[in-house]
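Researcher: I'd like a structural prediction for the single chain below. Treat it as a standalone chain; there are no partners to consider.
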Amino acid sequence: MKDEAETVPPFIPPGVIPPEEPLPFFHALWKLMDNPIETWPRAVYEEPYFLRGDDRQMFLYAADPSMLKDILLDKAEAFPKDWMFDRVTKPALGEGLLTAQGEHWRWQRRAAAPGFRPDTVAAMTPVMVAAAEATLQRWRDRCEGARLDIATEMTGITFQVILDTMLSGGDGIDVPAAARMITDYLETLGKITPADLMQWPTWTRVALAPRGYRAMVSLKAMVDRMVAARRAGATRDDLVEMLMQAKDPETGRQMDDVLLRDNLLTFIGAGHETTALALTWSLYLLGAHPPTAARVRAEIAEVAGEDRITDAHVERLTFTRQVVLEAMRLYPSLPLMSRMCAQDVEAGGLKVTKGTFVFIPIYAIHRHRLLWDQPDVFDPDRFSPERSAGRHRFSYLPFGAGPRVCIGQAFAQTETVAILATLMRGAVLEPDPGHRVRPLMRVSMRPQGGMPMTLRLR
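Model: Treating it as a single chain, here is the predicted structure.
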């Protein structure tokens, strides 16, 4: 008799259909401004690398794990972040941890690292679970059959978690208002514009996106007020205090208010956005595939029973974690990284010339024909210990890799599993059959139009 799992038909969730060949210039330009991942030709998903361009500018799409290891780790100094990344992110994040380079980045990374130690993250699990339980209670108040935008709901949970765990409540940060401001920024200044492609002065991005600029100014002012309150208040044991007290060991420099704000905006923005998206895509996939949802609920019942989810439970929820890993494979929160080749160098056996734009197309790498079996199928078991053994570290990059791997990776994984388990135990969420699920890339990869789902209470 066949194993029950073998009788379940494969589920292929919606994804990008790549063009067979590179798009003509004006078609590619329009697509690039609308949704850049839809410009990547099929070769990006099927070949170790895809190289195009001319004597003026070369573009390299790197997918081979050995090549990626050179770019992101072994020869990372030859591949700094590029000017396009700076244009999109620096207006909001300044010189914080995500955007800084070289030694300026290194000392900020050292300053923030203690806030993400495993024991520190484990102690935060009750706060994560409490935020999910509060959301469940609010859902119960809305009653059976309520229509929810799960993308917005997950943003609310993860934003509150960041404030409560890292920022001691946030001191006046208005969660709904700040979340709207971040969305306004990502939908305008957070995407590639004609001003970027033409390399017009940075101020032209602001002129073309006044809504995003107003959102950025308001969000910075909100965080500035929080910083001022913290400078004048009592000492607390949180990330803000850690950053305020940090010193560059070589220069003795401490973070001024602007650099402190840049880093807090980085942790507030990137810290809640990526986890909210991982939860959104996970809940969509589980709602669209009831057999997998049943396995998750059975594991939760076996591991935790009726008890509140704890860090010890999170460690044992192995299949639930595999669902999250698979959701981040199919729909990585960060679908693209980019670098600029700063010197003639060899990467993965390929000679890369100085000035080459290097794209690391994470969305395509995670669905690459040479790296994954049935890459478009939703299959959490591909992350079981047996099937993960021997997989190249650089074939799966939801948190990046190398020295600049996401500092909050352990935090995000614990948070996602703890919240997902809490929500799955209390609710069934059914996708809206009339809603077109389309992955849309800005800085992150959001579902276009949100993720409407119908609530069924358990």
